[in-house]
Amino acid sequence: RMALSIELLIVAWIILLVLDYVWSGMSKFLRLLMFPGRLLHVSAHYLFSKLFGVRMYEVLYTGLTRDTIHSGIVLSSDIHRIELWKIKIIAISPMFLAVVFIVPLQKILIFILINSGPGDLALILSWLTISFLVLGMPDVNDIKFIFTAHIMKNPETIIGLLWGIVVYSLGYVIYGPSIATIGTLIYIILILLATILPKTEKEEIIAE
């Protein structure tokens, strides 16, 4: 049932995000159980990074007890020459590939359940569907990635968003909580929209 319910899968994703903070060991265990989704997640990041020309790196850490290799996407230098929307697409790219896999998997799963009933094949398809959607959604690092990129490109956004507290407080005192909430949401949306509007570049005049 869970594999066929988008609502339950989204709830499972939210629970996994919470576990990343409060119980990292359990979070790692669940990701290990759903390793097909993790492979899809990582592959999607690297695929879209390659498409958008964002550099990837591998670093070898050597210690007295063990050697570890870390791979990732270079953000600090490339972020200044790449459009913000591309960075956001890279961060949520696993979600796109997850949908590509989930839609046919669910249709095949429904067909098998109707014609053959529960079985090993239905169990495997359910496992793959859950893995792809739960781990195909943005994880904590992806959300941090988007937030960091946005702030580096538009540091004034933080100041604008902090003023949302003032907007809500004034709205609460004057109009009540309902209007204050709606007004604050509209204010936040306008602030975020302002950051994606094309900026006019100033022409530099050189006096000879």
SSE diagram, text form:
Blueprint: H1 6-22, H2 24-33, H3 35-52, E1 56-62, E2 67-73, H4 84-115, H5 120-136, H6 140-153, H7 156-174, H8 177-196
Antiparallel strand pairs: 1-2
Explain how this protein is built.
There is one protein chain. The chain has 208 residues and is mainly alpha-helical. The chain has helices at residues 6-22, 24-33, 35-52, 84-115, 120-136, 140-153, 156-174, 177-196, and strands spanning 56-62, 67-73. The chain has a two-stranded antiparallel ribbon with strand order 1-2. A hairpin with a 4-residue loop joins β1 (56-62) and β2 (67-73). α7 (156-174) runs antiparallel to α8 (177-196). It is globular, with a radius of gyration of 22 Å.
- Largest beta-sheet characterization: 2 strands, antiparallel
List the strand order in the largest sheet. 1-2
> Regarding quaternary structure, how should these chains be classified?
single chain
The rounded Rg comes to 22 Å
User: Percent helix among the residues?
Assistant: over 70%
What distance separates the N and C termini?
A: 74 Å
| Low confidence ranges | 202-208
Number of strands: 2
User: What's the helix count?
Assistant: 8
SSE-based structural type: mainly alpha
**SSE topology string:** HHHEEHHHHH
Average pLDDT works out at 78
Gross geometry: globular
Strand content: 5-15%
